[in-house]
Amino acid sequence: MKPRQRKVLLIFIVLFSMLNAAFSQLADKMMIVIIDGARYTETFGDPTYKYIPKMKSLSQEGTLLDNFANNNYTYTSRAIPALWCGAWTAVEPIVYQGTSTQYAVLPTLFEYYRKQKNKPAEDCVYVLKYVPSLWLPSFDIDYGPNYWPEFHSVGSSDQDVATQAQMVMADSHPHFMLVYLAEVDHAGHLGIWENYTASIQTADSIVGVLWEKLQSDPFYKNSTTLIVTNDHGRHDDQHGGFQNHGCSCEGCRHIQFLAVGPDIKKNFVSTQYRNIPDMAVTASYLLGIQPQKATGNTMYEIFNFTGTNEEIKPTFRLDATYPNPFSKSTNIRYYLERAEHVRLNIFSVSGEKIITLKDEWESQGNKLLRWDTKNAHGQKVVPGIYFYILQVGNKSETGKLILANDS
Ligand SMILES: [Zn+2]
Ligand SMILES: [Zn+2]
């Protein structure tokens, strides 16, 4: 290949990856931060936001749920597994590798992710302080230990956890991370208000630092969703105050849910009622996995793409386009699992729309759309690279077309 050709090819590859990033709808990386036991009245329920300045400013780049709840057990040993599983899973005692602990009966988001995406443990990392007896994910027959996350359990403070999380990001760039911050709950139980609120401020600054880290690393930048939530709150002042938790009072139930990322609505406060199982199911949607045994619902209202509703689930498959490269025509093929609204547009490498090949409801089955290299005015387009976006319901996929010289 001549140097000039190589240069042109390189430019095409760079352009393609840029366009691909611009057109792909779903961020493919996810960080979930759980701040254990922060009461809503000290986080987003405080109109001055004095303990959470970073998360307040992040919420203007993302979506805040103002009506998110722990709708069942308001204590850690049940609520954390529920956040993992997208369901109020039973937990069972177990002696595992000589240590007494508990495991979740239902499969976790980690297991769905690793099995369905065929990912190694180092791509799915759970960062928390050192604990001698980790709570375990499931032994479900279809999932289980082969699909557990890598537990990175080091240090003792939330600051240590933040440092470790950044090391993990820099060293192995996992697509999926869960960062667990324990100190707010611990400080709350000790009953000293100033320490409790200071630990919320620390957790808030950690969220800010992690987000900055995500945005300063090209691997994560503009392709990562950050979710920050809690497992439970703490008693409101009518039910014993901030020191403890575990009942069904508003203070124990009302928790925060903040999401930021390319697919999340910006500067949006949703008042729709949602609860703990919806977190993992929504994260699954963004990760492109099916949490089969979860009971929660996808929170479509937080996504920034349009036309979504509860009825629409991912129901199509893009098949190989042939021929490709081509000079006269090519066939774009896909399969619909059920009747769906389908739109297929072809774009030039500079992002200009060339033609709409389909924009209507289609029945279930195998489909084929032929493109004869003509634009919307019936003129043949010049050889080069083109892209198509197949949008089925609220999901889309992008493909590349190479129109070769006619010879
Ligand atoms: Zn807790
Ligand atoms: Zn309570």
Task: Give a brief outline of the structure.
The protein contains nine helices and 18 strands. β3 and β4 form a beta hairpin.
Task: Describe it.
41% of the residues are buried. The chain has 9 helices and 18 strands. The strands form 4 sheets. Strands 1, 2, 5, 6, 7, 8, 9, 10 and 11 form a 9-stranded mixed β-sheet that branches. The chain has a 4-stranded antiparallel β-sheet with strand order 15-14-17-18, covered by helices on one side. It has 407 residues and is of the alpha/beta class. The protein has 2 domains: 26-302, Alkaline Phosphatase, subunit A; 313-403, Immunoglobulin-like (Sandwich), CATH 2.60.40. Helix 2 packs across helix 7 (193-216) and helix 5 runs parallel beside helix 7. The chain starts with a helix and ends with a strand. The model is unreliable at 20-24 and 307-312 (pLDDT under 50). Bound molecules: zinc ion (ZN) (2 copies). One zinc ion is lined by residues 235, 239, 245, 247, 249, 251-252.
List the helices and strands and how they pair.
Layout: H1 3-23, E1 29-35, H2 53-59, E2 63-69, H3 76-85, E3 91-96, E4 99-104, H4 109-117, E5 124-128, E6 150-153, H5 158-172, E7 176-181, H6 183-190, H7 193-216, E8 224-229, H8 250-253, E9 254-260, E10 268-270, E11 274-275, H9 277-287, E12 316-318, E13 330-336, E14 340-348, E15 353-362, E16 365-371, E17 384-392, E18 395-403
Parallel strand pairs: 1-7, 1-8, 2-10, 2-11, 5-6, 5-7
Antiparallel strand pairs: 2-9, 3-4, 8-9, 12-13, 13-16, 14-15, 14-17, 17-18
Helix pairs in contact: 2-7, 3-9, 5-7, 6-7
The structure holds zinc ion (2 copies).
One zinc ion binds at residues 36-37, 76, 185, 231-232.
